[in-house]
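Hey, can you fold this one?
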Amino acid sequence: MHAAVMAEKFPVVRLDSLALQAARLLAGNRLPGLVVITADGRPYTVLPASDVVKFLVPAYVQEAPTLAAVLSESMADRAADKLGGKTVRDVLSTRPSELAVVEHDDNIVEVAATMARLRCPLAAVLRDGTMIGVITASRLLELVLAPH
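Sure. Predicted structure:
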């Protein structure tokens, strides 16, 4: 099975997209991450949902997780405020994750190997340099585990 057959339509965001919109897209669709594209539409990186969560948690709490128990849950109420006015570029980690990129005619093993090597939950599928869809790790597993 080729990547083009496995690929699905998938929401993408640009580096200059609003972070709050990206977070709502992640949450509303229960996605593991989003493909981030450049201004010219080329796949750039993946924005893992975990990076958005990390952005919301203050650095001092990340360094001392026991502090989380004494903080009020009002911090969660301020998530929209913290993301407001920020872009996807602002939320990405300083060293963005490498996005798995595969060609439309790659087979299922090639796609799995690329995703595994990069530890990436998404693979952008390209045909002639244009992204035609995305393969998620859960879609890949569904296809691998399907009875033949």
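The longest strand covers residues 130-136. Let me know if you want another pass with a different chain boundary.
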